[in-house]
Design a protein that fits this description.
By secondary structure, this protein is of the alpha+beta class. It has helices at residues 15-20, 29-37, 96-104, 120-126, 168-177, 187-201, 229-252, 265-278, 288-293, 300-308, 348-362, 368-404, and strands spanning 47-48, 54-57, 67-73, 78-85, 108-110, 113-115, 134-144, 150-166, 211-216, 219-224, 254-259, 317-322, 330-331, 336-337, 411-418, 426-430, 435-440, 448-457, 462-466. The strands form 6 sheets. Strands 1, 2, 3, 4, 7 and 8 form a 6-stranded mixed β-sheet that branches. Strands 15-16-17-19-18 form a 5-stranded mixed beta barrel.
Length: 469
């Protein structure tokens, strides 16, 4: 039986996912009222930097715009201005808005809409760095040398105004055509230098097929979102700022870090054994991050290796410290200490890290409510991160099962990501359905095979294939 390329699923009700994980779309009225009445608590202390032609780069349709940037090439290197939405300006410590946002932890994204960390009147309006609007911000200024390494870092409260709003695909098209907005004309050079620096640090980047659920007419479809060079370059702006924030807090001996142990030797050894079995050369002495970065994304062996690589990145956590430095301050995937600081509209930790960095840079005491909150944030963020992962997986599983339900019995081409190797099932990637799912039988890892869909149940959100077809 020939296979059919799966495109659109019928309407899907993601309300069941919201109910299962107790996600509350409605924000408590006292917190909404507080956010709508809030005014900038530091308006008198801000420097006016509305002269900076900042721009934003976000997914199409995004309204919660946390970051705006201006990158200038200089004789000696670069100057990066990075404006981050100043959420703390609108939040009264201990108030209704503060309590509710600390309960939520972060924004949860579902295909049919988000469950926001803050009321939309704040996250998508008053605090969002929308184009043409004067907004309060924490404005980072990073002076970088010829290799795009920081030589001077400051952050202060400012008024800013974005002059243009871009998305990744649009900026990439401009780069390809040689037409880039002046505010980010230096981004390609900066990005490539930061990529080289990441490899030198031993950073590890995974490039698995990233499933996403998107609306398509009256239905939904699964897709894999290709990462553009601009995605990567823009992420290096955020990563660099987070690394600078982490170092600033370590120097001051107070803050909140996002941590990850270095890859375990056994995990690296297992990945090397898989590479040998697949016939993928891995020169002695080449760090695992450089090995993964050099793989051809268009060959099945790369999918297999990338599917095993998450074993290198286990044990992510947060660590708060005040006076005594943490034993393990590093982030193994980044190859340096790192802090979440660039997405305060969507992630709770960033508001508090921003407050610490502003105080450290100004030479003032960290505000008492911020200092008191740091120890609690570790559990709050760990819990909300775990919940966000479950919500995303549930939405994808529901869509996979709904998309495939009418096609039980049909055959598909697939790539084997993991062979059985003692597990009950193999794991396969089905490009025509953009599905990663279990498969019975004993196919060879890395092989391209023909499989048959034997089960797809939207109620249980389960899918199963069989080999041979």
């Amino acid at each position: 039986m020939t296979h059919t390329r799966i495109v659109v699923a019928p309407a899907i009700d993601f309300g069941a996912v919201r109910t299962e994980f107790a996600l509350d779309d409605d924000y408590p009225l006292p917190a909404v009222a507080e956010s709508e009445a809030a005014a900038d608590r530091w308006s008198a202390a801000r420097v006016d930097r509305t002269d900076l032609p900042l721009v934003t780069i976000d997914p199409p349709g995004s309204m919660d715009l946390d970051q705006a940037l201006h990158l200038e090439r200089t004789v000696h290197g670069f100057v990066l201005h990075y404006a981050i939405a100043d959420v703390a300006a609108f939040v009264t410590p201990g108030g209704a808005l503060d309590r509710e946002s600390r309960r939520r932890g972060q924004t949860y994204y579902l295909p049919d809409g988000s469950v926001p960390l803050h009321p939309r009147s704040l996250s998508e309006d008053a605090a969002s760095l929308l184009p043409g609007r004067v907004r309060p911000a924490a404005l980072w200024r990073l002076v970088l040398d010829e290799t795009a390494e920081p030589v001077d870092v400051t952050v202060r409260r400012a008024l800013v105004r974005s002059v243009a709003r871009f998305d990744y695909a649009g900026v990439q098209a401009g780069v390809d055509a040689g037409v880039v907005h002046p505010s980010i004309a230096a981004l390609p050079e900066f990005g490539r230098l930061r990529e080289a620096a990441a490899r030198a640090r031993g950073a590890i980047e995974l490039r698995l097929p990233e499933q996403d659920v998107i609306a398509d007419g009256n239905g939904w479809r699964l897709t894999t979102q290709p990462r553009t060079e601009v995605d990567d370059w823009n992420s290096h702006v955020s990563l660099l700022t987070g690394m600078c924030a982490a170092q600033m807090m370590l120097d001051a001996r107070i803050g909140l870090l996002r941590t990850l142990p270095a890859a375990a030797r056994e995990a690296v050894a297992q990945l090397r054994r898989t590479a040998v079995a697949l016939g993928v050369p891995w020169p002695e002495g080449l760090p695992v991050g450089s090995f993964l970065a050099g793989l051809d994304v268009n060959v099945p062996a790369t999918l297999v290796l990338m599917s095993e690589a998450p074993a290198l990145l286990r044990g992510a956590s947060y660590v708060a410290f005040d006076g005594e430095l943490p034993e393990q301050p590093g982030h193994g995937a980044i190859g340096a200490p790192y802090a979440h600081v660039t997405a305060p509209l969507r992630r709770l930790a960033d508001r508090f890290v921003t407050e610490v960095c502003l105080a450290v840079c100004a030479g003032t005491d960290v505000p008492a409510p911020v200092r008191a909150a740091l120890p609690e944030l570790r559990e709050t963020m760990a819990g909300s991160d775990a919940l966000a992962g479950k919500v995303t997986r549930a939405c994808i599983a529901l869509t996979e099962a709904t998309v495939l339900a009418p096609h039980v019995g049909e055959s598909f081409d697939a790539t084997v990501l993991r062979a059985t190797n003692g597990r009950r099932d193999a794991e396969v990637f089905v490009p025509d359905a953009t599905v990663i799912a279990p498969c019975t039988g004993e196919p060879k890892e890395g092989s391209r095979i023909r499989i048959r869909l034997t089960h797809a149940d939207p109620q249980t959100r389960t899918v199963r294939f069989a080999y041979p077809a």
